[in-house]
Amino acid sequence: MTVPTVSCTNCGKNFTTDDLRGTNCRYCGTLFAHHARAAQQVAVVNQMLADRNGNGIPDAFEGIVANAQANAMNQAFGMNANPYTPYNPYNPHGQPGPMMGPAIQIHNAHMQQVAHATRTANKTVTIAIVAAVLVIMLSFGIGIASMLLVG
Predict the structure, then answer these.
(1) Does residue 94 contact residue 86 with C-beta atoms inside 8 Å?
(2) Tell me, what's the pLDDT at 112?
(3) pLDDT score, position 21
(4) Please, which residues have CB within 8 angstroms of residue 62's CB and are 6 or more apart in sequence?
(5) How far, in Å, are 5, 8, 68, 122, 133 from residue 13 at the CA level?
(6) By CB count within 10 A, which of 58, 104, 124, 143 is most buried?
(7) Beta strands in the chain, from DSSP E residues, in sequence order
(8) What is the C-alpha to C-alpha distance for residues 151 and 145, in angstroms, rounded to an integer?
(9) What does the DSSP 8-state code read for residue 61?
(10) Residue 79's pLDDT is what?
(11) Which of 45, 40, 9 is nearest to 27 (CA)?
(12) Would you state the pLDDT for residue 65?
């Protein structure tokens, strides 16, 4: 039974276990193949994790993030977040028509602003009415108390 040996791909010399703990062939200086492959893989990972546009998202994941954002918009607002592929359940093939793509997004954003303004106005009017009623009740109470004390 023979023991398999590992040899240099460049010069053909057999390696000992101690030789394999290094990174280069001690005979010819060639970088071991598994070290060269690991360096290539590190370079590929570094390229994938690069953030060339500086938005905080690695370039390799920008498509995934954009898809997740579009899905979140669809789940939250029931609309297609991608203006280039509008979807309308009443017009599934995308023929031109009212309220599609960016138009529906602008309409929904406007309706949210209107609803917020209406809620704010309702709260303001309610607080003003309650304050006015309290002032009137307090002034009647003071008036009645002063008439009772004087009279």
Answers:
(1) yes
(2) 86
(3) 85
(4) 55
(5) 10, 5, 53, 87, 100
(6) 104
(7) none
(8) 10
(9) G
(10) 57
(11) 9
(12) 75
Residues 16 and 6: their CA atoms lie apart, in Å, by: 8
Q: pLDDT confidence of 105, banded at 50, 70, 90?
A: confident
What's the N-to-C CA distance of the chain in angstroms? 126
Tens digit of each residue's pLDDT (9 = 90 or more) over 35-54? 888 889 999 888 888 888 88
Distance of CA 2 to the CA centre of its chain: 58
Distance CA 90, CA 77 (A): 17
**Residue linked to tokens 């390696």:** 15
Q: Would you say 80 and 87 are in contact if contact means Cβ atoms under 8 Å apart?
A: yes
| Number of neighbours of residue 74 by Cβ within 10 angstroms | 14
> In angstroms, what CA-CA distances link 42 with 37, 48, 49?
9, 10, 10
- H helix or E strand, kind and range, residue 76: helix 62-77
CA torsion angle 17 19 25 26 (round to 10): -150
3-state helix, strand, coil in the chain (%, to 5): 60, 5, 40
